[in-house]
């Protein structure tokens, strides 16, 4: 029987560990503050921001909410970021993406002080990861490493195939697996023989944003499958990039959707906030 990797349980464990750490920091007089900036009122973003605030409250991190109207200009947003960069009481800055079309995301990400870049998207954070130095790591891939480690799944020496090469998931995922001494292959939309490459994987990370794309034909018997995708199917139920029921009999361990990778992202954001305060 395959192991269902329980992201809900593991993320709760991490949040409880962080709660203790935050209490200890408070006892030393150190308060942690995260500034959460949202522009416009995209419903999905509002849900994500709400969940982040809830996690902060649970752990004991103070959250400052900046809910800006859709018509906020790029300059106004950059000014706010400068103010938050300068505030000594703010440890972390999170700008909820996506931003409205008239605001350049890359400019906004670069404006955040790398010491407060708790999303790990700033080029300096990405660079630190690629040269193997300490810095903030993008939360979703960092959470996947925790899922693997805390489920007793060894990475060292394993064939790891990451499908997807986005800056927030695929690329940092590949760097982290490499850091853990995996043998890493990164696939994308131009990869030839995708099935064949995926069938080499001891650990397959699916992050392409296509519902139920990966069936058993992509899976080596006994592989570990990590499903990053989140979609709503025709019945309004959540599903991932992996066809869970079809793949399940062939794997040794797999993350479900929901309850796998999803809950880890916020737990690792909280981890990064604590790291920001400790730095
Ligand atoms: P992007 O759209 O930014 O990137 C998708 C990647 O998949 C691209 O590199 C693309 O290749 C590749 N791709 C697309 N189609 C194929 C294909 N048929 N075969 C091979 N590769 C393909 O997505 P993200 O990385 O941001 O997100 C991926 C998924 O993960 C989404 O479903 C998203 O909702 C989910 N997600 C979940 C999170 C969580 O907390 N659980 C957090 C972040 C994302 P190319 O570069 O060539 O275009």
UniProtKB/TrEMBL annotation:
Family annotation (CDD domains): NAD_bind_m-THF_DH_Cyclohyd
GO molecular function, a single term: methylenetetrahydrofolate dehydrogenase (NADP+) activity
Keyword Secreted attached: no
Role noted for this protein: Catalyzes the oxidation of 5,10-methylenetetrahydrofolate to 5,10-methenyltetrahydrofolate and then the hydrolysis of 5,10-methenyltetrahydrofolate to 10-formyltetrahydrofolate.
Any GO CC annotation of this UniProt entry: cytosol
Keywords: Amino-acid biosynthesis, Histidine biosynthesis, Hydrolase, Methionine biosynthesis, Multifunctional enzyme, NADP, One-carbon metabolism, Oxidoreductase, Purine biosynthesis
EC number, as in UniProt: 1.5.1.5, 3.5.4.9
Binding locations of NADP(+): 164-166, 230
Protein's recorded name: Bifunctional protein FolD
Catalysed reactions listed for this entry: (6R)-5,10-methenyltetrahydrofolate + H2O = (6R)-10-formyltetrahydrofolate + H(+); (6R)-5,10-methylene-5,6,7,8-tetrahydrofolate + NADP(+) = (6R)-5,10-methenyltetrahydrofolate + NADPH
Pathway: One-carbon metabolism; tetrahydrofolate interconversion
NCBIfam families according to UniProt: PRK10792.1, PRK14186.1
Keyword Phosphoprotein (UniProt): no
Subunit architecture: Homodimer.
Domain Tetrahydrofolate dehydrogenase/cyclohydrolase catalytic: 5-119
SUPFAM superfamilies per record: Aminoacid dehydrogenase-like, N-terminal domain, NAD(P)-binding Rossmann-fold domains
Entry's Gene Ontology BP terms: L-histidine biosynthetic process; methionine biosynthetic process; purine nucleotide biosynthetic process; tetrahydrofolate interconversion
Family under the similarity heading: Belongs to the tetrahydrofolate dehydrogenase/cyclohydrolase family.
InterPro entries noted in UniProt: Aminoacid_DH-like_N_sf, NAD(P)-bd_dom_sf, THF_DH/CycHdrlase, THF_DH/CycHdrlase_cat_dom, THF_DH/CycHdrlase_CS, THF_DH/CycHdrlase_NAD-bd_dom
Gene source species: Candidatus Onthocola gallistercoris
Tetrahydrofolate dehydrogenase/cyclohydrolase NAD(P)-binding domain span: 138-278
């Amino acid at each position: 029987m395959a192991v269902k990797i329980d992201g809900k349980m593991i993320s709760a464990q991490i949040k409880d560990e962080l709660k203790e750490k935050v209490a200890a920091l408070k006892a030393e007089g150190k308060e942690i503050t995260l500034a959460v900036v949202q522009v416009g009122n995209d419903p999905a973003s509002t849900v994500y921001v709400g969940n982040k605030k809830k996690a902060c409250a649970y752990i004991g991190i103070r959250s400052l909410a900046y809910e800006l109207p859709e018509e906020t200009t790029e300059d106004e947003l950059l000014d706010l970021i400068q103010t938050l960069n300068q505030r000594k009481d703010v440890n972390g800055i999170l700008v909820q993406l996506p931003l409205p079309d008239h605001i350049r995301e890359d400019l906004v990400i670069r404006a955040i002080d790398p010491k407060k870049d708790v999303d790990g998207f700033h080029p300096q954070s990405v660079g630190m990861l690629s040269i193997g130095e300490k810095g903030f790591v993008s939360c979703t891939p960092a959470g996947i490493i925790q899922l693997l480690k805390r489920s007793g799944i060894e990475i060292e020496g394993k064939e790891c195939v990451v499908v997807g090469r986005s800056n927030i998931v695929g690329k940092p995922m590949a760097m982290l697996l490499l850091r853990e001494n995996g043998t890493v292959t990164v696939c994308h939309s131009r990869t030839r023989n995708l099935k064949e490459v995926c069938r080499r994987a001891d650990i397959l990370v699916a992050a392409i944003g296509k519902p139920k794309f990966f069936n058993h034909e992509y899976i080596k018997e006994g592989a570990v499958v990590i499903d990053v995708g989140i979609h709503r199917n025709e019945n309004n139920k959540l599903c991932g990039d992996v066809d869970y029921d079809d793949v399940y009999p062939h794997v040794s361990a797999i993350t479900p959707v929901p309850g796998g990778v999803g809950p880890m992202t916020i737990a690792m954001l909280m981890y990064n906030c604590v790291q920001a305060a400790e730095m």
